[in-house]
Every structure is written in C-alpha cells, then in structure tokens.
Model the fold of this input.
Amino acid sequence: MITLEEIRDSPMHEKLRMMATLWKAITSQEAELSAPVWHQDLLGKREQLIKEGKATCIDWEIAKQ
Done:
C-alpha cells in the first residue's frame, strides 16, 4: 500500500492521476455506497421544513456564488 509520505512526495500530476483512479474505483461500486444515517436524517429534516414552508431552496448557481 502507498503511504501518505509517498503521496506527499509525488508530483501533482501523479497525485491527480491517483485521485482519478481512486474515484473511478469508488464510483464503479456505487450500488454499495449509501449515505450515513446522520446525513439521511438531516436531508429528511430539511425536506420537511421545505414542505412546511419554513425553508426555501435557491438556484444552484446563486448558491455557488
């Protein structure tokens, strides 16, 4: 297994290649992934607030600004 020190010592292009490879490996097993319970709970609470009119959504482009 590669160590953190080896990663730190790698050139940026190599770090990016490793990251892309790792991301591809993770997303190829997407069916095995699930959000943690705390995240599902938070999303449920926010969805309920929106349904009750106590919260609103904004456009993603505005949110990114």
